[in-house]
Amino acid sequence: MKMHLLRRWGLVAAGILVLPFALFATAPAAAEECSNRGDLDVGYCDNDGDLVADTPADSGKWLNPDTLIFSYTPVEDPSVYENVFTEFMEYLSQATGKKVKWYGAESYAAQVEAMRSGRLHVAGISTGPTVFGVNLAGYVPIAIMGKHDGRFGYKLQLITHKDTDITKVSDLKGRNVAHVTPSSNSGNQAPRALFKSLGVEPDKDYEVKYSGKHDNSIMGVANKDYEAAPVASSVLDRMHDKGVVNKDDLRIIWESKLFPTTSYGYVNNLHPDLQRQVTYAFLSFDWAGTALHEEFGKKSDRFISISFKDHWSDIRTIQKTNGTVYSQESLKGLKVKKKKKKKK
C-alpha cells in the first residue's frame, strides 16, 4: 500500500535528512552536558534552543524497538480512532520497517506517562497536553493536520443548551459549568486565562467540574447535565457531523481566535533514523480515499510541518498566565477519574 509514495519520498528524504544525520553523527561528547534546560524536566536538555528535548548524544540511549507504539489523543471512543488511523499505521510500518501497534490511552496523563517511561514512541497529543508531553516526556512535535495552503487550527467555543438563559460569558456566574481536564487548552487553560478579561473567574464565580473529555462536556451540555462548557470547535463539529449531537440544540455564546490542533511527533530518544522515517511518513502520507480523510477531511486533508517553538507560543503563554508548573505532581493532576455508572 502506497509503496510508490515511499519510493518517491525515499529519494527526497535522503536529500533532506543528510544534514540532520551529520549533526547527530558529529555531536560532540560535551553535548551531554546540559547548558540549557528551560522548562524541560531533569534528564532532558535543550542545547539548541528550540524548546524541545535534544536527541541524546550517547547512542546507547537511543530507542530502536522492533515494534513502534502509536497513540492518538484520548477523545471520544479510542477503538473508533484505531480504525481511523489503521491505514496511516500501515504506512508508518512500511516507512520504518517496524511493526506498529495501537495504544488506546484513557487520559492525557496516560499518554505522557507512557512516553516518559519509553512505552510510547509516536503519538498525536492534544493542544494543551502537548506542552506537558514536551516538558515531561521528551515529546518532539513535528506535524499537525491541515490544508494544502497551510491552514490549520480550531477555536475555543463556549456552549450552552438553547433552553438556558445564558447568552454571554458573564452569565456563567453561579452556574454548573464543565471543563475538560486541567491540561486541556480549550477545555480549561484558555478559559481560565481569557474569561477573566470578560468578567468571570473560574473556581471563583463558578465551580469547575471536570468531565474528562471534550465529548463528555459536549454531551453533558446537550443532555442538560451541565449548563455550559468551554470546548474545542473541532470536536463539536465532528460530533455534529456524526449525528452524535445536533448543533441546533446548542448555543455558542463566545469563541476565541484560532489555536493549533493536536500535534503529532515522537519521543526524543527514538533512534535518529527512525525520527527521520517517522517525519517523512507523516508529511508524505496521502490521505485520499483513507479513513483519515473520511473522518477529518472537512477540516484537513494532510499532515503539515509545524514548530513547537513558534506554533505553540500562545498556548505556552496561556499556561504561564495560569501559573502552570510542569512537574510529576502536575502530571498526576491531569488524571480525571471517570464516574462509575450506578447499577439499576
Rounded Rg: 21 Å
Under CATH at level 1, the class of the largest domain stands as Alpha Beta
Q: How does the helix and strand content classify structurally?
A: alpha/beta
Q: What overall form do the CA principal axes indicate? A: globular
Number of strands: 11
Percent helix, as a range, is 25-40%
N-to-C series of helices and strands: HHEHHEHEHEEEHEHEHEEHHEHHH
CATH homologous superfamily heading of the largest domain: Periplasmic binding protein-like II
Measured between the Cα atoms of the first and last residue, the distance is: 49 Å
Strand content: 15-25%
CATH topology of the largest domain: D-Maltodextrin-Binding Protein, domain 2
- Describe the main β-sheet briefly: 6 strands, mixed
> Low-confidence segments, ≥5 residues, pLDDT <50?
1-31, 337-344
Mean pLDDT: 87
Which CATH-level-2 architecture of the largest domain?
3-Layer(aba) Sandwich
Q: What is the topology, as strand order, of the major beta sheet?
A: 2-1-3-10-4-11
Number of helices: 14
> Can you tell me the number of structural domains?
2
Structural notes for this entry:
By secondary structure, the chain is α/β, with parallel strands linked by helices. It folds into two domains: 3-149 and 261-332, 3-Layer(aba) Sandwich (D-Maltodextrin-Binding Protein, domain 2), CATH 3.40.190.10; 154-259, D-Maltodextrin-Binding Protein, domain 2 (3-Layer(aba) Sandwich). The chain contains 14 helices and eleven strands. The strands form three sheets. A six-stranded mixed β-sheet has the order 2-1-3-10-4-11. A three-stranded antiparallel β-sheet has the order 8-5-9. Helix 7 (185-194) packs across helix 13. The longest helix is centred in the first third of the chain and has 14 residues, at 3-16. The protein is globular, with a radius of gyration of 21 Å. The termini are far apart.
